[in-house]
Design goal:
Helix content is 27%, strand content 33%. By secondary structure, it is of the alpha+beta class. It has a domain at 8-132: Gcn5-related N-acetyltransferase (GNAT) (Aminopeptidase), CATH 3.40.630.30. It has an eight-stranded mixed sheet with strand order 1-2-3-4-5-6-8-7, sandwiched between helices. A hairpin with a 5-residue loop joins β3 and β4 (81-90). α1 (23-31) crosses α2 (48-64). The protein binds coenzyme A.
Amino acid sequence: MPCPPATFATARLTARPPHPDDAPAAFATYANDPEVTRYLTWKRHHDVESLAVFFGQCSANWEKKEGQLAWLLFLAGTSTLVGSIGVTFEPGGKAMFGYVLGKKFWHRGLTAEALTFLVDWSLTQPEVFRAWAYCDAANPASARVMEKAGLVREGLLRRWQICPAFGPDPRDCIVCAKVK
Ligand SMILES: CC(C)(COP(=O)(O)OP(=O)(O)OC[C@H]1O[C@@H](n2cnc3c(N)ncnc32)[C@H](O)[C@@H]1OP(=O)(O)O)[C@@H](O)C(=O)NCCC(=O)NCCS
């Protein structure tokens, strides 16, 4: 499996792996917000403790270099947490991305900035041929983020993913990818 940088920086962001101590800030910024988590595959966190447990699992993933590798994103030069981005390396040369940003940081191009960096990095890896992501078909902002990061829309994955906020039935998702 490729080994991504544990930390990285873009023009306006710095990124590092989450730690359980980050849970209060992440809870307040995005993980407890019903609007932010509406189209996500994970349920909104209702307490800081469950998020701290999740961040502990994230740390373990980094140690073992397996599963989803996640970063927290901060405004460069500050300790202001803005959101999170993650990658999962899948068999057959695929890197799948997911991201979330606190509402007050939307519409500044920050997610596209972080995704662009990681997509481009992943495709420099000899064993990665496809950088891809998907989003709920009713989430055009996320689809636009993918396009801004150079991913090309490939189609609609029908009944692909359950969004817990909408109930138990799988929903249609837009799939985008950049390949080499
Ligand atoms: C989706 C999300 C990550 C976008 O983050 P962001 O930092 O605001 O994204 P960017 O500023 O990089 O780009 C957003 C683009 O979507 C566009 N956009 C925003 N709302 C839109 C809408 N309702 N319809 C169409 N386009 C929309 C913006 O205009 C912008 O494109 P532009 O720069 O060409 O104008 C953020 O809204 C978020 O975290 N949402 C909740 C979690 C989520 O849905 N994550 C993705 C799961 S797949």
